[in-house]
Amino acid sequence: MKIVFDFGGVLFRWHPPSFLARVWPHRAADETAGAAIAKDFFQAYTGDWGAFDQGLADAPTTADRIAQRTGWPREEIVAVMDAVPSELALIDGTAALIRELKAQGHTLHFLSNMPEPYADHLEQHHPLHEWFVSGVFSGRVKQSKPAREIFDLALEHFDAEASEVLFLDDYPPNIEAATALGWNAWLFTTPETARVELVRRGLLPG
Protein backbone atom coordinates (compact mmCIF):
# COMPACT_ATOMS: atom_id res chain seq x y z
CA MET A 1 0.00 0.00 0.00
CA LYS A 2 1.36 3.39 -1.03
CA ILE A 3 0.26 6.18 1.29
CA VAL A 4 -0.49 9.58 -0.23
CA PHE A 5 -0.70 12.73 1.87
CA ASP A 6 -2.44 16.00 1.13
CA PHE A 7 -0.52 18.99 2.53
CA GLY A 8 -2.74 21.92 3.57
CA GLY A 9 -4.67 20.96 6.70
CA VAL A 10 -2.90 17.58 6.89
CA LEU A 11 0.88 18.04 7.07
CA PHE A 12 0.86 21.84 7.15
CA ARG A 13 -1.54 24.12 8.99
CA TRP A 14 -4.22 25.59 6.78
CA HIS A 15 -7.29 27.06 8.46
CA PRO A 16 -8.53 30.11 6.53
CA PRO A 17 -10.98 31.42 9.19
CA SER A 18 -8.29 31.75 11.88
CA PHE A 19 -5.66 32.76 9.32
CA LEU A 20 -7.74 35.69 8.08
CA ALA A 21 -8.68 36.70 11.61
CA ARG A 22 -4.97 36.86 12.38
CA VAL A 23 -3.74 38.71 9.28
CA TRP A 24 -6.83 40.81 8.56
CA PRO A 25 -8.15 41.74 12.03
CA HIS A 26 -9.67 44.96 10.67
CA ARG A 27 -11.87 42.87 8.35
CA ALA A 28 -12.18 39.62 10.29
CA ALA A 29 -12.63 40.29 14.00
CA ASP A 30 -12.95 36.58 14.78
CA GLU A 31 -13.05 33.17 13.11
CA THR A 32 -16.73 33.49 12.23
CA ALA A 33 -16.01 36.64 10.26
CA GLY A 34 -12.88 35.00 8.86
CA ALA A 35 -14.93 32.07 7.55
CA ALA A 36 -17.31 34.43 5.76
CA ILE A 37 -14.47 36.40 4.16
CA ALA A 38 -12.67 33.19 3.17
CA LYS A 39 -15.61 32.28 0.94
CA ASP A 40 -15.05 35.45 -1.08
CA PHE A 41 -11.26 35.40 -0.96
CA PHE A 42 -10.63 31.74 -1.84
CA GLN A 43 -13.92 30.94 -3.63
CA ALA A 44 -13.80 27.34 -2.39
CA TYR A 45 -10.54 27.03 -4.37
CA THR A 46 -12.24 27.79 -7.68
CA GLY A 47 -12.28 31.03 -9.69
CA ASP A 48 -9.33 33.36 -9.14
CA TRP A 49 -7.69 31.27 -6.44
CA GLY A 50 -8.36 28.07 -8.35
CA ALA A 51 -6.40 29.44 -11.30
CA PHE A 52 -3.56 30.32 -8.91
CA ASP A 53 -3.69 26.79 -7.47
CA GLN A 54 -3.42 25.36 -10.98
CA GLY A 55 -0.51 27.52 -12.03
CA LEU A 56 -2.69 29.25 -14.62
CA ALA A 57 -2.19 32.69 -13.03
CA ASP A 58 0.77 34.11 -11.13
CA ALA A 59 0.55 35.88 -7.77
CA PRO A 60 0.37 39.47 -9.12
CA THR A 61 -2.37 38.54 -11.58
CA THR A 62 -4.29 36.75 -8.84
CA ALA A 63 -4.07 39.78 -6.57
CA ASP A 64 -5.32 41.97 -9.41
CA ARG A 65 -8.27 39.69 -10.06
CA ILE A 66 -9.30 39.40 -6.42
CA ALA A 67 -9.10 43.17 -6.00
CA GLN A 68 -11.20 43.78 -9.11
CA ARG A 69 -13.78 41.19 -8.09
CA THR A 70 -14.14 42.17 -4.42
CA GLY A 71 -13.20 45.84 -4.27
CA TRP A 72 -10.72 45.16 -1.47
CA PRO A 73 -7.49 47.20 -1.71
CA ARG A 74 -4.88 45.34 -3.71
CA GLU A 75 -2.16 45.97 -1.13
CA GLU A 76 -4.28 44.26 1.52
CA ILE A 77 -4.79 41.25 -0.72
CA VAL A 78 -1.06 41.05 -1.37
CA ALA A 79 -0.46 41.15 2.39
CA VAL A 80 -2.71 38.11 2.83
CA MET A 81 -1.02 36.23 0.01
CA ASP A 82 2.42 37.07 1.40
CA ALA A 83 1.36 35.71 4.80
CA VAL A 84 0.36 32.28 3.50
CA PRO A 85 3.84 30.71 3.99
CA SER A 86 3.73 31.55 7.71
CA GLU A 87 0.28 29.96 7.93
CA LEU A 88 1.69 26.75 6.42
CA ALA A 89 3.42 25.73 9.64
CA LEU A 90 4.37 22.09 10.05
CA ILE A 91 1.87 19.97 11.98
CA ASP A 92 4.26 18.10 14.25
CA GLY A 93 1.91 15.19 14.88
CA THR A 94 1.63 14.43 11.17
CA ALA A 95 5.39 14.75 10.70
CA ALA A 96 5.83 12.19 13.49
CA LEU A 97 3.32 9.93 11.75
CA ILE A 98 5.27 10.18 8.51
CA ARG A 99 8.50 9.24 10.26
CA GLU A 100 6.75 6.27 11.88
CA LEU A 101 5.33 5.09 8.55
CA LYS A 102 8.72 5.36 6.90
CA ALA A 103 10.30 3.39 9.74
CA GLN A 104 7.78 0.64 9.01
CA GLY A 105 8.97 0.56 5.40
CA HIS A 106 5.96 2.19 3.73
CA THR A 107 6.24 4.18 0.51
CA LEU A 108 4.91 7.73 0.85
CA HIS A 109 3.86 10.25 -1.79
CA PHE A 110 2.00 13.55 -1.73
CA LEU A 111 -0.79 15.13 -3.76
CA SER A 112 -1.37 18.77 -2.95
CA ASN A 113 -3.29 21.71 -4.36
CA MET A 114 -0.57 24.32 -3.96
CA PRO A 115 0.37 27.40 -6.01
CA GLU A 116 3.96 27.30 -7.21
CA PRO A 117 5.36 30.02 -4.90
CA TYR A 118 4.10 28.16 -1.84
CA ALA A 119 5.29 24.81 -3.18
CA ASP A 120 8.76 26.34 -3.60
CA HIS A 121 8.62 27.63 -0.01
CA LEU A 122 7.70 24.23 1.41
CA GLU A 123 10.49 22.51 -0.52
CA GLN A 124 13.02 25.05 0.71
CA HIS A 125 12.04 24.81 4.37
CA HIS A 126 11.12 21.14 4.88
CA PRO A 127 12.78 17.82 3.94
CA LEU A 128 10.06 16.75 1.53
CA HIS A 129 12.48 14.68 -0.53
CA GLU A 130 13.43 12.71 2.58
CA TRP A 131 9.83 12.07 3.58
CA PHE A 132 8.31 11.30 0.19
CA VAL A 133 9.38 9.20 -2.78
CA SER A 134 7.55 11.61 -5.07
CA GLY A 135 4.70 14.07 -5.15
CA VAL A 136 2.43 16.22 -7.27
CA PHE A 137 1.79 19.94 -6.74
CA SER A 138 -1.22 21.30 -8.62
CA GLY A 139 0.59 24.50 -9.57
CA ARG A 140 3.21 22.54 -11.47
CA VAL A 141 0.92 20.20 -13.39
CA LYS A 142 -1.80 22.76 -14.25
CA GLN A 143 -4.53 20.59 -12.72
CA SER A 144 -6.09 20.51 -9.26
CA LYS A 145 -8.22 18.33 -7.03
CA PRO A 146 -10.99 17.28 -7.20
CA ALA A 147 -10.70 17.01 -11.01
CA ARG A 148 -10.14 13.49 -12.31
CA GLU A 149 -7.16 14.60 -14.40
CA ILE A 150 -4.89 15.23 -11.42
CA PHE A 151 -5.76 11.92 -9.80
CA ASP A 152 -4.99 10.05 -13.02
CA LEU A 153 -1.76 11.99 -13.43
CA ALA A 154 -0.80 11.24 -9.83
CA LEU A 155 -1.25 7.49 -10.27
CA GLU A 156 1.00 7.61 -13.32
CA HIS A 157 3.53 9.64 -11.37
CA PHE A 158 3.40 7.25 -8.40
CA ASP A 159 3.54 4.18 -10.68
CA ALA A 160 0.50 2.81 -8.88
CA GLU A 161 -3.01 1.50 -9.45
CA ALA A 162 -5.90 3.19 -7.63
CA SER A 163 -6.41 0.14 -5.43
CA GLU A 164 -2.78 0.29 -4.29
CA VAL A 165 -2.96 3.70 -2.61
CA LEU A 166 -4.39 5.13 0.58
CA PHE A 167 -5.07 8.86 0.28
CA LEU A 168 -5.36 11.14 3.34
CA ASP A 169 -6.98 14.53 2.69
CA ASP A 170 -8.93 16.96 4.88
CA TYR A 171 -11.31 18.26 2.17
CA PRO A 172 -14.43 16.09 1.68
CA PRO A 173 -14.86 16.80 -2.07
CA ASN A 174 -11.33 15.47 -2.68
CA ILE A 175 -12.06 12.31 -0.71
CA GLU A 176 -15.31 11.81 -2.62
CA ALA A 177 -13.56 12.28 -5.96
CA ALA A 178 -10.74 9.88 -5.07
CA THR A 179 -13.17 7.24 -3.80
CA ALA A 180 -15.22 7.48 -6.99
CA LEU A 181 -12.04 6.73 -8.94
CA GLY A 182 -11.30 3.60 -6.93
CA TRP A 183 -8.75 5.03 -4.52
CA ASN A 184 -8.71 4.03 -0.88
CA ALA A 185 -9.30 7.39 0.77
CA TRP A 186 -9.82 8.61 4.31
CA LEU A 187 -10.90 12.04 5.58
CA PHE A 188 -8.12 13.46 7.76
CA THR A 189 -9.04 15.44 10.87
CA THR A 190 -6.11 15.07 13.30
CA PRO A 191 -2.83 13.14 13.40
CA GLU A 192 -4.16 11.19 16.38
CA THR A 193 -7.26 9.91 14.59
CA ALA A 194 -5.18 9.23 11.49
CA ARG A 195 -2.88 6.99 13.47
CA VAL A 196 -5.84 5.06 14.87
CA GLU A 197 -7.06 4.52 11.31
CA LEU A 198 -3.63 3.42 10.08
CA VAL A 199 -3.42 0.93 12.94
CA ARG A 200 -6.89 -0.34 12.07
CA ARG A 201 -5.78 -0.88 8.49
CA GLY A 202 -2.69 -2.79 9.65
CA LEU A 203 -0.26 -0.16 8.39
CA LEU A 204 1.13 0.70 11.84
CA PRO A 205 1.54 -1.39 14.98
CA GLY A 206 -0.97 -0.78 17.75
UniProtKB/TrEMBL annotation:
<dbReference type="Pfam" id="PF00702">
    <property type="entry name" value="Hydrolase"/>
</dbReference>
<dbReference type="InterPro" id="IPR036412">
    <property type="entry name" value="HAD-like_sf"/>
</dbReference>
<dbReference type="InterPro" id="IPR006439">
    <property type="entry name" value="HAD-SF_hydro_IA"/>
</dbReference>
<protein>
    <recommendedName>
        <fullName>Haloacid dehalogenase</fullName>
    </recommendedName>
</protein>
<dbReference type="InterPro" id="IPR023214">
    <property type="entry name" value="HAD_sf"/>
</dbReference>
